[in-house]
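Morning!

This is the sequence you dropped in the shared folder:
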Amino acid sequence: MGERVDDRELERLTGAAAELLVGLPGTPDGVRGRDEFVRWFERHGLDGFAVELAAAGPATEDNAWRAELWRDRLREAILAAPGPPGLLGPLGRPGSPGSPGAQAADELRAIVDKLDRPDPTPLRAPESGDLLDFREGTFHGQVIGVQTVHNSYAAPAPGGAQPPALDWLLAKDVEPLTHGVRPTRRVRGLPVLPPYVRRDQDEAVNSAVEQARSESGLVVVLGQAYVGKSRAALAAMAQVLPDHRVFAPARDEDLRELPALLRGRAERCVVWLDDLDGHLGGRGLEPRLLAQLSALEAVVLATMRDEAYDKCVGTSAQGRLLELAQLVELPRTWSPAELERAERTGDPRLTEAVRESGTVGVATYLAIGHRLWNDWRRARNPQRHPRAHALVRAAVDLARCGLTGPLPRDLLVTVHDGYGIAGLERESLDDAWEWAGRRRYGSLRMLRCSDREPRPFEDVLPYAVRAAERSDRETGPFGNVLPYFVHTAEQDEGFPAVAGWVWGQAVEAARADPSAYDVESVVAGARAAYAKEAEAGDGSAMHALGLLEESLGEGEKAESWFRRAAEAGWTESAGRLGRLLVERGESREAEVFLELAAEAGDHGAATLLGTLLRDRAFQWFESATESGNPQAARQLGDLCLAAGDLIQAENSYLLAEQQGYAEVARSSGMLHLLCNGHGAARVWLARAVAAGDGPAAELLAHLERGPQPLEETRGRFSFSEAYPLDNAHYGVVLEAQGELAEARKHYEKGYQAGDPYAAYRLAVLLEEQGDGEEAGVWYRRAAVMGHPAARKAVAGRPGAPDTVKE
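The structure's back. Tokens below.
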């Protein structure tokens, strides 16, 4: 058997282990090595360390202080462990041979082996003086020396000194978390565990333990996993046997020497065997050992799962032992009286469990919820289930926004994409749904997801029942997240706040289905969340508040937030504010904000700004023209010509001509060309060409060529996607040349490209051919697409609905 490790060796072990731990790389071998340590912490009830380690990244430059931190934590875990710490697993298998850390692990094996191998020393009481124990020695020669033997296992000689007192804890001082009780969520300012709630079976458990104290024997608290067996048994032990010394051996530890250790001692002892099936067998508890312990007035208190009991009761030795036990069964579901007692404690963890656990039971909900939370946090690693992690995160955040009913699956998918979690591409959506919706630990799921109508969890959680009973109108995919996750996220100060874009999705979802969600509550939550970030100077939150207030019809509030966001540099708000000001008639003030948005790439703002500037240009060109400026008259004419006001354009050009402004030549030539005055157009364009006007030369050359033949006209049109309108133009040319079948083909192509004019031209063609019925079909198609002439044509046809009239 291994020898006891002294403090210096313990420090060496934990220091080397910590250096190995923080030095593990981000490779698959490194991840597996870190997983070993995570599981080791979990076995010792240190779930907080396990979660933090699972979320830690690969080695960094900060290894020195990280190693110091984990050295202290490893030492704490070893000292808190009820039995041998079992570090050999994570240290001995950090990766494949030759991987980083393998050599360090080999060097540590000798020391770790001393901690891992069974050692009878924990069964012995501390002894004074030096002890040289040769009982396990092997000798190959003469041994000369003096040995003083203190036989701890033998009864004291008559009249001799009593053996020293046991250093085991008193029952009233036992720490539940180190003796089998499962942890749950920690809340700042509250004890690590919620207060114990008296169970209806406590009287039976106490009575059985009281009888065992009087008569000695075995008491077993039975029940399913995670129903609170350990907590109930430990509470009974502390109440009935407060001054008994507690011996809590490790699983599979050799118990055969225990009677010798207890013999002759005045102190009463209780043997604590959590999960009794791990303490049975040749070296563990069996009927004869129980009889010896009973003769020494020791109480054996144990817990056992139902399935383990059913398996053991059929075997010979183990079955006979269980026949000697007093059994008390603890149910999973809590009675109304127990729920009331839990709620009266005022502990938020218990009140939440009372509200949400249903038939799952308070103890199960708290214990499994905590384990599921840790499993989910670890799933974010790209090597595990990052997409499933993101889907559950989306459901948690949306529930925190107030969407407490069934969540549409497409909403969860949309939100989960926005977190930027690495490794999503490595996991399919189907695999992610399956992992997140899998029942774990026999009871709960992180996320309930289905393609059917809402139904409660198989566990009949009340919130799911309410969701299902609320309405039978909901069809299609949906999902609900375990409430434990929502409450934990809300109470964890380190958990990220709901992002503004998630609030936006939540508000849209609530408005889309107001009968499923409390829209006012969601909107109020979004407003409060945005306001908090906005007051901290977040421009995106200011913009989001503006959009929210605008959607609620609060124009003044919306404008105020858009203005603050624009002043904070949020250009999207600048564009929004500019539009609001234009609608209100304050165009001059709007131009500043529209220009900011346009410079940032807002094409809509750029177009609106151009329109405003054009209108201002009209105003100032008119003013300058009235003052007799010929250049302004020419510019005003060009603007009028582009706007289709040929009369105003002509008047402006005449004013410039009257003042001898030769630069008006090309503009006047274009006006005459549009009015079919080819002769006058040639004269004006020739003047412009002589002055070096390139565009005028091109116009004049085109004009001098005269009427173009059909083939050349066809060549001026393109039928690529870049020129979708040319299909209709080419159809007009073909129709004018009498090629009606070809014209129809091009009109249909133009319609397919989204051109309402093409549909209108085809309707006109069909009507001229006498096919009024089909012409009506094409008129309606063009009208639906918004063509004005088509709308008039449809409105004028017999039986036309009023909705098509202008």
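Headline: The chain has six domains: 7-119, 171-331, 348-535, 539-610, 628-706, 712-804.

More detail when I'm at my desk.
O.
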